[in-house]
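Inverse folding, one chain.
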């Protein structure tokens, strides 16, 4: 059975079957709307509830609101969403909706949505950040921890509202944050520019078409790692990314150019692909291949080529082009990596100095580790001054700069190996 709401469709059978034996959770959720639903809440059972949801004659504003909540619970009903729910509830301790850890994630999501909507919103935000795909990496002037997070967060929200009011006449901004180890993550909601679209209006017998003007909300994501001094930003537009980055730096580090020093965006080294000895080393049970390469050749007319193949290096060799590659002429690359538990593989798109795109729902740690081992992701850890407070004779001070060899770059792994594995030895560079 497909349940159709006002805006979207989802598999209602699979989702609602999880509530067999947990009907009280559905009843508690429905009681948030009470009589507005035109539903006998006290006698709810799963088959009847499914029928009521799919009945177009029971449409109402209250039912639309109820459906929106079910959609969001459905969105977060995954193994990672389960972790996000438990982590969010931990932040709201002593609230513990599942002390025996026995509820399916669907039931847990609905229970948290009913009892603590603020905790559910935090879990939903964490889940949304986890699925961010296209992001840019910048390194700060130093490894600087964030002080007074909530105070600065309010300042950040106000600063963004001011900037967006000037740029697109909208000051509606909402910032949420949570901490995860060395990372402080932010979800920024703001309005897109005004849009207008044609929709059907009027009745079924006398339909008419007219424009509807609206301003949809946009999500941007920021993830700052205090141990590396680097930030990842996903934003819908490059100009807005700059606005977000500078406002973030100004409000949290009192320096709008904290992430704009010389070389701050130099995080990728695509020129390594032009190295004649370059190859994609992976463990025996993995596979990796360069499947797309966009590059220029130093010829008259400045031709640009985009090669797509199951093995771009082999295609280049077959056509006598690999030896003509130049490090400064490579524009973008796509690498496909497969794992034993994911034979379909994942495509990793790299472009410019700091643009990375891939679905981080799984194997994100592995991908950052591989990019570092292949020397496509540059580590600047030994160049960044550490300003993390430490205790010296009872006084807090900043740690002195360290000159420490490290192969870790920005990484979703909280503990990336700092030595190359036996399967991935460091390649000698040609003299």
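Residues assigned per position:
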């Amino acid at each position: 059975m497909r349940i159709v709401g006002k805006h979207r469709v989802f598999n209602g059978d699979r989702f609602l079957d999880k509530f067999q034996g947990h009907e009280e959770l559905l009843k508690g959720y429905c009681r948030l709307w009470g009589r507005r639903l035109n539903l006998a809440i006290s006698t709810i059972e799963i088959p009847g509830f499914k029928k009521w949801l799919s009945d177009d004659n029971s449409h109402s504003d209250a039912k639309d609101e109820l459906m929106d909540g079910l959609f969001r619970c459905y969105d977060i009903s995954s193994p990672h969403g389960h972790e996000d729910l438990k982590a969010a509830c931990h932040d709201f301790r002593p609230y513990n909706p599942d002390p025996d850890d026995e509820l399916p994630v669907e039931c847990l999501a609905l229970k948290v949505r009913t009892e603590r909507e603020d905790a559910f919103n935090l879990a939903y935000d964490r889940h949304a950040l986890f699925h961010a795909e296209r992001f840019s990496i910048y390194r700060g002037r130093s490894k600087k921890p964030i002080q007074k997070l909530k105070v600065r967060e309010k300042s950040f929200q106000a600063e963004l509202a001011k900037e967006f009011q000037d740029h697109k006449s909208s000051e509606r901004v909402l910032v949420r944050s949570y901490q995860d180890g060395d990372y402080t993550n932010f979800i920024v909601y703001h309005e897109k520019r005004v849009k207008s679209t044609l929709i059907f209006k009027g009745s079924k017998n006398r339909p008419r078409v007219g424009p509807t003007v609206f301003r949809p909300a946009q999500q941007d994501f920021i993830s700052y790692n205090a141990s590396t001094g680097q930030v990842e930003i996903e934003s819908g537009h490059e100009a807005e990314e700059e606005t977000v980055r500078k406002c973030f730096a100004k409000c949290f580090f009192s320096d709008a150019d904290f992430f704009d020093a010389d070389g701050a965006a130099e995080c990728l080294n695509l020129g390594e692909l032009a190295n004649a000895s370059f190859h994609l080393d992976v463990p025996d049970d993995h596979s990796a291949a360069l499947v797309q390469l966009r590059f220029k050749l130093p010829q008259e007319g400045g031709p640009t080529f985009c090669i797509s193949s199951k093995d771009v290096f082999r295609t280049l060799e077959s056509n006598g082009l690999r030896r003509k590659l130049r490090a400064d002429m490579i524009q973008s690359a796509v690498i496909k990596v497969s794992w034993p538990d994911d034979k379909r593989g994942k495509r990793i798109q790299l472009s410019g100095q700091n643009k990375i795109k891939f679905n981080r729902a799984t194997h994100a740690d592995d991908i950052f580790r591989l990019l570092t081992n292949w020397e496509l992701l540059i580590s600047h850890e030994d160049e960044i001054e550490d300003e993390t407070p430490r205790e010296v004779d009872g006084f807090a001070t900043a740690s002195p700069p360290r000159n420490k060899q490290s192969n870790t770059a920005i990484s979703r792994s909280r503990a990336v190996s700092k030595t190359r594995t036996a399967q991935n030895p460091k390649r000698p560079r040609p003299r």
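The radius of gyration is 26 Å. The first helix runs from residue 12 to 17.
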